[in-house]
Amino acid sequence: MKGDYHQYLAEFKAGDERKTAAEEMMLAYKAAQDIAQADLAPTHPIRLGLALNFSLFYYEILNSSEKAYSMSKQAFEEAIAELDTLGEESYKDSTLIMQLLRDNLSLWTSDMQTIGLRCTNIHGFEDL
């Protein structure tokens, strides 16, 4: 949540204030990611939501399509690999977030093709 708070600030700030908010956001998201990867299953909705928000930070705030794409792709693929272990209570939430990750992957694949970057689609085949 701390990362999300700083993301909202960064979206509306400019100059040094935007840079400071982005730095705080990076620290918060990185700390949360370390905890999530150590303590939560790849299919856990909180871990997936964090990956979604952190990848959007890279895409929207840092303008890093490649990093956003790779982060989303990794989270999606790790979750797909363990989808059969997903409990019924979190299935709906997890699959909804996975769909959002996949939607972003499709969008960012298109963006990266437009600017001439190579990317591997979610099925493992290289585009371009």
From TrEMBL:
**What SMART domains does the record point to?**
14_3_3 (SM00101)
Stretches assigned to the 14-3-3 domain:
1-124
The record's annotation in InterPro entries points to: 14-3-3, 14-3-3_dom_sf, 14-3-3_domain
Q: Output the Gene3D superfamilies linked to this UniProt entry.
A: 14-3-3 domain
| SUPFAM superfamilies (alphabetical) | 14-3-3 protein
Q: Which Pfam families match?
A: 14-3-3
Reading the lineage from the top rank, the first entry is Eukaryota
Cited PANTHER family? 14-3-3 PROTEIN (PTHR18860)
Family affiliation: Belongs to the 14-3-3 family.
This protein is called: 14-3-3 domain-containing protein
